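TICKET: design request
STATUS: open
ATTACHED STRUCTURE:
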């Protein structure tokens, strides 16, 4: 069995058992659904920069593939303000264009993920399977299963 050990805790747990069967490769990197925890997904990255690029790419792809939903999610008012070159935006930072908003994610991937954690250790077999040593984990979940 493979494992991931975090610097912090997720629901009082910092050590997670995983296997290659729990891993999936996506267009934006590897995701892991740890055993015994339904509706929890780990996004593994080699660096914080890669995590930021993942989030930027995710939102760019989302906007291009479903513009109507993007307008709903980002807000028509924000898009109008950006078109006028005025500061606006969802989230904690205000910028003057959609491109600037996308670029924000390079430095702040935590605005996308529910939690971000440093990875203290991974098993050698998991590192070999992934083809890199992950040091950053982004977390998305629906509900925690004990």
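STATUS: resolved
RESOLUTION: sequence designed for all positions
ATTACHED SEQUENCE:
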């Amino acid at each position: 069995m493979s494992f991931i050990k975090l610097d912090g805790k997720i629901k009082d747990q910092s050590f997670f058992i995983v296997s290659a069967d729990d891993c999936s490769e996506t267009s934006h990197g590897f995701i892991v659904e740890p055993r015994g925890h339904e509706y929890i997904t780990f996004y593994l990255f080699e660096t914080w920069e890669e995590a930021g690029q993942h989030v930027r790419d995710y939102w760019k792809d989302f906007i291009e593939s479903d513009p109507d939903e993007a307008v709903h999610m980002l807000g028509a008012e924000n898009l109008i303000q950006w078109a006028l070159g005025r500061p606006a935006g969802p989230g904690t930072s205000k910028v003057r264009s959609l491109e600037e908003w996308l670029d924000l994610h390079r430095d702040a991937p935590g605005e996308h993920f529910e939690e971000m954690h440093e990875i203290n250790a991974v098993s050698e077999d998991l590192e070999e399977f992934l083809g890199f040593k992950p040091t950053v984990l982004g977390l998305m979940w629906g509900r925690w299963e004990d």
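CLOSING REMARK: The two ends are 20 Å apart (CA to CA). The helical segments are 48-65, 67-74, 76-83, 98-107, 124-130.
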